[in-house]
Amino acid sequence: MGGTCRKISVDPERCYGSGDCVYRLPSVFTVVDGFGAVLPGREEAEDEARVREAAEGCPSRAISVSG
Question: pTM for the full model?
Fold first, then answer.
């Protein structure tokens, strides 16, 4: 990551609960009440390439990586 912190979030208004994020990266994402969410304590990207891959693969484009 080169010292740059990236914040991961899932927009609950966009997510429709495909579970693709959990399938791609279960160490970062989970399902809460049928919708994707970031696991507590995993809001910062440690494996930025895999997180970006999960974000790009999200069918509802609900995952964002910023910072």
Answer: 0.87
